[in-house]
What we know:
- There is one protein chain.
- This protein is an alpha/beta fold.
- It has one domain (about 5-265): NAD(P)-binding Rossmann-like Domain (Rossmann fold, 3-Layer(aba) Sandwich).
- The chain has helices at about 15-25, 60-70, 95-105, 105-125, 145-165, 195-215, 220-230, 240-255, 255-265; strands at about 5-10, 30-35, 45, 50, 75-80, 85, 125-130, 170-175, 185-190, 235-240.
- The protein has an eight-stranded mixed sheet with strand order 3-4-2-1-5-7-8-10, sandwiched between helices. It has a two-stranded parallel sheet with strand order 6-9.
- The radius of gyration is 19 Å and the shape is globular.
- Belongs to the short-chain dehydrogenases/reductases (SDR) family.
- This is Short-chain dehydrogenase/reductase.
- It holds the Pfam family adh_short.
- Keywords: Oxidoreductase.
Amino acid sequence: MATTRPVALVTGASTGIGKAAALALAAAGFETVGTSRKTSGADRRDGVTFLALDVGSDDSVAAAVEQVIERFGRIDVLVNNAGIGSSGAWEENSLPQAQRLFNINVFGVMRMIKAVLPHMRARGSGRIINISSVLGFLPAPYMANYSASKHALEGYTESLDHEIREHGVRALIVQPGGTKSSFEANTVAPDMPMQIYAEQRRIADQVALTVNEDGDDPETVAKAIVAAATDSKPQVRYTAGRSARLLSAAHRILPAGVFDGQIRKTNKLPG
């Protein structure tokens, strides 16, 4: 059943930022498809059609994108939100664990874009919106894997945007700060824990939890996503929420030594 309405596809849409984004895009007039690994079959809730999708699987991505195009005839906006977290010092994380995280946070995004981009390019229009984080430009002690994945996503997205802009398609970044969500439930503990890092890891985990508890509502991030999807002259990056804007400004303005000291202070690391 083709539609004349613009179609948005949102990954990781069952909770948190993804759910808020799917609902906000639906409210903004998009025919919205949300995906989740936990969805069985296709169903429709609150104006959003849900499909099963595992961004870590080539076959699952190809099947879901094909299903959306067959059903609605188009994909105008892709929001790559699905992701997992990682905690612990780098020495406590095995390489296979890092590879699993990158398979979702980085290669999952690349899989989705590889499947959707030819369709957008053929239509001569489209928006690809990748959900990054302030940890895409900040260091994150005891979250090095996660921060590395978001740094990679930032460089990939900005480079991609230059490649596809002439074809009417944009690749954009949304950078949330701390956000009230169940993200910690999707954070993987280190698989090689070491006693020497145990106390500082505990402190880092508590700091991260507090940052999210005191953070913005997912709806704040969803507003930035809708803006990225609809602005006539989109920005390459959208910082979403007060904390993200403050951190971005501090990163640009403060001397490197001062900023480094503030990172250690915030994370309660020895001076």
